[in-house]
Write a structure and sequence with these properties.
Elements (H helix, E strand, L loop, with lengths): L3 E9 L6 E8 L4 H12 L7 E5 L2 E4 L12 E3 L5 H6 L4 E6 L5 E12 L8 E6 L9 H13 L6 H8 L10 H8 L19
Parallel strand pairs: 4-5
Antiparallel strand pairs: 1-2, 1-7, 2-8, 3-4, 3-6, 6-7
Helix pairs in contact: 3-4
């Protein structure tokens, strides 16, 4: 599988209209590498804990802070996408930020040969901006969008300032995403902030 690519479809649940991404990732990439890709294509900053749900097993970064779960968190660096595809495990879950509780469905759609000259991983399609970090989960995101869209809303100015002055939920800059993907690796994840802003 060294010279193969897996096409991966990621859909964020509880978002309407749908927020989704289609990416191509080398088949010898681990779940850890896929986590890094999902963070970038969704516009997140890897501030929080996460895990993959594959069958009856959870994969992530084993940590004492995983006490919220009564199942063992297995090491995501030990499982490769090509192996999952070969074993028929083509659909599984991804959970990010146990406070905001973002749930994604991940589908390994197809495996193909590497295209000469192509840079992997790469975003090939998608829809809508990902929700900001610490916005309060799906319901907090909806409240955030309503507030920034209504100049008369009591939190309009506050939340626009919090997000940096502008936010377009319909936008997805594929070129910018792919530039960020080309920076992988390395990324320093030794310091993870667990703080959350109260948005909802």
């Amino acid at each position: 599988m060294k010279d193969a690519v897996v096409r991966v479809f990621v859909t964020l649940l509880d978002a309407e209209p749908a927020i989704w991404r289609r990416v191509e990732v080398r088949a010898n990439s681990t779940l850890k590498a896929l986590h890094d890709v999902i963070q970038i294509v969704m516009g997140w900053a890897d501030y929080h804990l996460h895990h993959f749900e594959i069958g009856d097993s959870l994969y992530g970064e084993p940590s004492p802070e995983d006490e919220d779960y009564d199942r063992e968190i297995l090491d995501e660096r030990t499982l490769k996408l090509g192996s999952l595809a070969d074993d028929g495990q083509r659909t599984f879950g991804y959970v990010y930020d146990y406070g905001d509780n973002w749930h994604c469905i991940v589908v390994l759609e197809a495996t193909s040969a590497v295209v000469s000259g192509a840079a992997y991983p790469r975003l090939i399609a998608g829809a809508r901006h990902g929700p900001p970090e610490d916005v309060g989960g799906p319901w907090g995101y909806l409240a955030f969008l309503e507030a920034i869209a209504d100049p008369k809303h009591e939190r309009h100015k506050e939340l626009l300032s919090w997000i940096g002055g502008t936010f377009n939920p319909e936008s997805l800059d594929a070129d910018q995403v792919n530039r960020a993907l080309r920076q992988l690796p390395p990324r320093n994840r030794s310091q993870k902030s667990k703080s959350r802003a109260a948005i909802n």
